[in-house]
Each structure stands twice: as C-alpha cells, then as structure tokens.
Write a structure and sequence with these properties.
alpha+beta, 25-stranded antiparallel beta sheet, two-stranded antiparallel ribbon, globular
Amino acid sequence: MKKWTGLLASLLILVLLAYYFMGFLVERTLNKNVEALYKTPLASLTLKNYQRGWFSSCASLVLEMHIPAQQVTDENGNIRNNLPVDLKIQFPLAINHGPFVITDSGMRFGLGYVSTKPQTRYGALLNYSNDMVFKYSLPAIITQGKTGSQDYQFEWLGLRAVLKISPGINKIKGSWNINGFNGEANHVSFKLGKVQHHFELYYKDGLWTGQTRLSIPYFTLSTNNTQVIEIDQFKLKLGSDINDKLLDYNVGLKLKKLWVNNQIYGPGSLKLSIKKLDPSAMANINRLQRTMLENNQHPELNMLALLAELPKLLSRGSEFELSEMYLTVPQGKITGNLKITLPPNDLNDPAQIIKKAYGEGQFKAPAATVKALIAASLANNSPDDLTQSNDAAQGVTARDPVPESPKDAIAVSNTSTTENQVENILKKYINQGLLKVEGDYYIVDIKIENQQLFINKTLFNPEMLNQ
C-alpha cells in the first residue's frame, strides 16, 4: 500500500511540476512569436503585463498604430495639415497551462491554451510540436425584420477558421470555411454556398511561397423573382515555389457554369505560370515595396531602386506561359495558349532583355463571339463616333443626311449602323492578316521575335487597329 501511495504521490508531483514547466515554455514561445512579427512605424503588436502562475497565466496583447501627419490638397489647391493619430488597443488574454487543458469546447492536450477575457469563440493552442494553433468559429445567425413596408431576411450559416503558426513564424497553414450566406430584401435575393479556402505558406530568404486554394460551389442573384446571375463550381488556385534556386508562380482557375443574360458560359479553365525568376531580386522588390508603403519620403528614388531590380529578376531565363485557356460560350469554344521566353543573360538594360524575347501562341474564337464583342465595344461610343468610324472604314468622304424620325426608327438605324461597322472592321482585319478564317472561327497566330510582333505571319503595326 505504501508503494502505491508513494507512486501516486510521485506522479502527482510530476504533473504539478509539468504544469509549472509548461507555463514557462508557453511564456517563452508567446514572447518569441510576438517579437518575430514584422513591426513597422505604422503598426506594432506586443505582449505586455505577463503574469505567470502555476496552472494559468494572464497577459495583455497590445496593438499600437500610428498614422503620421499628412498634407492634403483640396480641389482649390489649398493645403491642409492633418494631425498625427496614435491608437492603442489592448486585448486581455487568459493562458491555461498544459499538459491537460479543460476548455468550454472540451479537453485539450498541449503546452498551453490561450483565449481572450472574457472568453469568446476563439482561442489558441500551443501543441507539443511548439506550433501555435488558432481556432475561431462564428455561429449561425438569422436576422429578420421590416423596413417600412419591405421585409428583409438574412441567414448567416456560420464560419470556422483554423490557423497554425510555427515557432519563429516561418510556416503558416490554415483554412477558413463559410457554411453559406442567404438573404432577401427589397425584391433582391441571393444565395451563397459553402466557401472553402485553404492555404499553406513558407517564409525563407525574404520570400513567402506556398499554395492557396479557394472554392465557391454556387452563387445566385435574383431580382423580382427573376434570376440575374448564377455561378456554379468556381475554383481558384494560386501557388509559388522555389525549384533549383529559381522562383516560380502559377495560377489556376476553373469554372463549371456561368449563367448571365439568359446565356450559359462554361465549362472553362485557365492555367498561367511565370517561371525562372531570381528569388533574391524578388525579395529586394518586396522589401522596397514595404519601404514605399511605410515611408515614401523619396518616391522617385524608391521607384528607381525598384526598377533597377527588374533586369536581375528576369536574368535567369524567365518564362511566361499560358498553357491552357478555354471557355465554352453559346456560339462555340474559345481557346488559347501563349509562351514567351527570355534567354539567360547578365544585361542591366530591360530594353536589351526584351529584344531577346521569343514567343509563340494561338488564340481561337467563334466568329459570332468576336462580332458580339466588337459590337459591345462600339455600343459604348457615341452615334457620331460610330458614323465617323463607319465612313472611315468604307472610305466615304461625304455623310448622308440623317432625317428626323421617331425613337424606334433611330434605334433601328443605330443597330444597322453598328452591324455595318462590325462587318467593315472584320473585313479590314481579315484583309490585313490580323484575323484568319477557319470555318466559323477566327484564329490569331502570334509570334514574337527580334523585338517584333507577327500576327498570322504578318508584321504587326498599331496603325492596323485604327478603325
């Protein structure tokens, strides 16, 4: 019996010592993580008034912001000096020590658990890997009411977010999910499905790289019980990585369906990448951009320093590639691809680097879609612009008089004028070689070589686009 009593007493002492020791580790890690945060003259975050106990501790997280004095020029040219503004926000913290932490959401195992005072629906856990894990949740909320004779209702279906930060803040991983959001007011209604966002970022040598993904299952918007827009299965993926000491960026976008103006677009996809950038030059550019945001007393010098990094950024044989682009439209399918490469070089002149650029690509679209796009562009012009442009395209030197007519006759006349204008523009582009006809499609073959742009094997001149 004495043996078991001694064993239990020893175990109890070890647990008590573990609570105190883990409280010390939590304090050290919290101070280290807060001090590792990037501080600027505009904002800083500090941990103050830390009082460590045996089983729990308390502290204050202080956010300090400083907005410097600014000079504002009004419309009359008068200069007004705005006084500087200093702001301090304090968040009281409650820190429970491990190894066993009891919270309102259940038992937690780790070095410690951090929450605000009074406790809300978010907190932080310091796990046994010494990573800080933040969790936040916002419950579902339904709001109903009436403004005048109009009823309104908003249904927030909840949010949950998780953020995991490594010691020293050189690795961040997390996600946030919106369970949905619906609403109806003033004859306008919308529905948003469960939005999911996941990210994983790494910091090394002045650069953040990693992956981030966003998905929206559906979104609808209606007015007066008539659907205006519908989006189905939208996905976005952004990524960056360093391979063989070269920096790569990539973008991916997918869409299953877009319903708008009683027409369906989709599926569609886009894959874009920028490869073989110099990582040290990009780190310098990011540092200069932060300097310009924090203290832009010499914007011209900062901009010159930033431009000086561009040749180095592109000196490793950079590549720009649109590897995949397609979108199904009511008239057919739009497709495209393009790749531009720069040879490795040690030049300091961006103009000389561009001279060595080489690229090839092709874009293909239904003729009806191209006509609709040109017509939409012309619709933004005034009737006078349309008439002048139409005369120029036809080589007309005199304008026929426009008789007075009712509004419907004017609308028909404008529509006919726009259609003629579109046909004349397309004929001009085809004759100049800017468009190649293949069945019901227009094709544009692109080639970049020796600082020249060739379209369908024809040397491009901006004057060709003059209507």
